[in-house]
Specification:
This is DUF4377 domain-containing protein. It comes from Aestuariibaculum suncheonense. Keywords: Signal. Helices cover 15% and strands 52% of the residues. By secondary structure, the chain is mostly beta strands. The chain has a single domain, classed as Immunoglobulins (Immunoglobulin-like, Sandwich), CATH 2.60.40.10. Strands 1-7-6-3 form a 4-stranded mixed β-sheet, with no helix packed on it. A 3-stranded antiparallel β-sheet has the order 2-5-4, with no helix packed on it. Strand 4 and strand 5 form a beta hairpin. The radius of gyration is 21 Å and the shape is elongated. The relative contact order is 0.26.
Length: 121
């Protein structure tokens, strides 16, 4: 009986380690830097996405009036940024590119993009 309980406990532990892990596999990180003026509307096209693909902000900018993703009818996703009034300095946003995995129902991250803004008057 003890052996059966230990075996079940070992199997549950192994399954939980693999299925309950929040660790994401390593993904490519692309980094871009842009010099912009305070209150300038900045737009960056992330490209065109299929029906089961998309993008999401994983780390929001800190000093923004506008920091958002929008897609149009053609599935082009545009990131828009505008700094808050009077802010000069450095701000950044991180965006994840995801695809729906039909077999798991999850949205695994395929790559990440970090956009750094150097904001001046």
């Amino acid at each position: 009986m003890k052996k059966t309980i230990l075996l079940v406990l070992a199997v549950v532990t192994v399954i939980c380690q693999f299925s309950c892990s929040n660790d994401e596999p390593d993904v490519d990180l692309q980094e871009l830097d842009f010099d912009i003026k305070n209150l300038e509307n900045f737009e960056y096209s992330l490209g065109f996405f299929g029906d089961e693909q998309g993008a999401r902000i994983s780390e929001q900018a800190k000093y923004f009036e506008i920091s958002e993703l929008e897609d149009d009818v053609n599935r082009e996703i545009i990131y828009t940024y505008k700094s808050e009034i009077g802010f000069t300095g450095v701000d950044f946003v991180e965006i994840e590119f995801v695809s729906f995995d039909v077999s798991t129902g999850l949205l695994p991250v395929e790559k990440k993009l970090k956009i750094t803004f150097n904001i001046s008057d």
